Automatic annotation (TrEMBL):
Key word Cell membrane present: yes
InterPro entries per the UniProt record, alphabetical: ABC_BtuC-like, ABC_transptr_permease_BtuC
Pfam families, A to Z: FecCD
Record GO biological process: siderophore-iron import into cell
Organism: Mesorhizobium zhangyense
Entry superkingdom: Bacteria
Membrane-topology descriptor: Multi-pass membrane protein
Gene that produces this protein: fhuB
Ranges annotated as spanning the membrane: 58-79, 91-112, 145-168, 195-213, 233-266, 305-323, 344-367, 387-408, 420-439, 445-464, 476-496, 516-534, 565-591, 603-624, 630-653
Protein name: Fe(3+)-hydroxamate ABC transporter permease FhuB
Keyword field contains Lyase: no
Taxon lineage: Bacteria, Pseudomonadati, Pseudomonadota, Alphaproteobacteria, Hyphomicrobiales
UniProt family annotation: Belongs to the binding-protein-dependent transport system permease family. FecCD subfamily.
Amino acid sequence: MPGRRDWPLLLLVCVPALLAACLTLTGLLRLLPAELWWHAIGAPDLTDPRQLLYRHAALPRIAISLLAGAALGLAGTLLQQVLRNPLAEPTTIGTNAGASIALTVATLYAPWTLEHGREWVALAGGAVATLAVFELSRGRRFSPIAIIIAGLVISLTCNSAGALLMAINREYTQELFIWQTGSLIQNGDTATFRLLPWLIVAGIAALFLIRPLRLLDLSDESTTSLGASPVTMRLAGTGVAVALSAAVVAAVGVISFVALAAPALVKLAGARTFRQRMIWAPLAGASMLWLTDRAVQVLPFASEIPAGTATAFLGAPLLLLLLPKLRTMPERQEVMPSLHRRNAWLFLLPALTAMAVLVWAVLAVGYDGSGWRWASGAGLSELLPLRAPRVAVSLAAGVMLAIAGTLMQRMTGNPMAAPEVLGISGGASLGVLVFFVLSSSLDRSAMLAAAFAGALASLAIVAPIGNRRALAPDRLLLAGVAMATMASAFSAVVLASGDPRLDTLLAWLSGSTYRATTADALVAATTAIVPLMIVPFLARWLEILPLGDAAACGLGLRLDRVRVILLVLVSIPTAVATLVIGPLSFVGLMAPHLARMLGFQRALPQLFASAILGGLILVCADWAGRMLIFPWQIPAGLIAALVGGPYFMFLMAKRR
């Protein structure tokens, strides 16, 4: 008989399994009468499509959901023990994204590498991404939050690269999208029999590692004094976890957050020791993924929601709930290496001139079927109605995001703060998506109101989490990324709905200015100009806030009122920029840093220089998106994100 303490664990595993079993039996009975089940397993009638679907689609799908869930539960348990981090799992440390982009590249450009097994390609990509995460966090002594932030930024960058590859290879877009979002749909036993040996071997290896890895509950000094090598044990445990994760990605795509949820839930249910978590987490992961997969099959959507998307949508709130439990390290104030210009205002005039020349150039220079052309006179007049709204929207969106990023970095004292990173852009996009689902129209003013409401709601959720304890900046970053993940998962749910307006939504989500209108340009330009007119009256606040809360209060600032005003100033341009350019570009992160490195240290010169640089970045990105794969187009937000992700990693490396 199980002990009293085991009952919560049994319920955690058995209740989802029983629900999944009921849904499974109902589905199988609907597909094929029970009296034919055994016959269909051994020798299905080739003339009966029901038996073929039962044998080669339904049963393998059940098996792969159980195997993948168990593998992810085991991988998450190993990573959390090895890294002493309750948020560590293959998604949050970048392993899944690395494996996914490696398989995407191999599928498109080197399919011969898949002949010896997709698992090895995925393992190589996952290992490279994981090593990159460890390298980025090494300078901060592998602190839990440093590892998670590095992993999630690498994931965002890999996802942007995957989206770019899908834009270039349009004939494979639907197939790649379904696979990257983690689909458990099966067409035979191949994936099951490929994943099973990896799970068996990894399970055996994990059993041998239980006793050594338990020593990691002690400090590294204590572990070394007992004759064990913490580095060797961490490498062994991480290697097993990465191999398991790569095998799952190779078999079914990216299944997010199961490896986070299973160990966390079994620990809350009473599995206190590492040995108990090693036993119960795979069982919980298997039952949870089985139930999730059965649930997505009965939801009333035009097409099935991928299981990976469903788990991400459920896992991001869990990430927010677990964030307060994360062990943190004190953060120190850092001074970024840069120049200092005494007469910074004098350099803004040449910058404005350069921006005007660039705008004129991108309006005039283009490529058509005959080659490159420099339009002028009547030819330019014909092109202006097509190009001018796009350029104006890109310029205004870059200015707005740069203003928001500068305000946030000065308000929080965090050099990595940005609307895209702190979840404000994600909240704005979530508001637009909710409006998209609830409304039958695409009214721009209503969408703008929805974006603003979503941005404020995101701030209301993220800001209290970021203000806990001493590490507010990094907590703010991680909470914001969780919000961005929720928005991304919800967008995937909406994309699976089969709505006829999806073409417009897809273009917006990827940051395209293709549908920009004159009205959009006027709204964006007005919203960009208004903060530039207001901010000079707030210059004193922006100079004092980076000194810290104590200094700001000592100098007479009412921090609550100041922050509310600045957050509203951040939310409005972020909402408008998200509406016209999409939810991800990293311009709000890059532009303030570039301005600082160019010597614009004081608040107002930095803000105006950031605005100019942000506009230049997105104008160039939009032009490059129009030209690189002509006659097709790459969204400007996507190109900017591909530049911004590596730049974020560079900043993390410099913070050592």
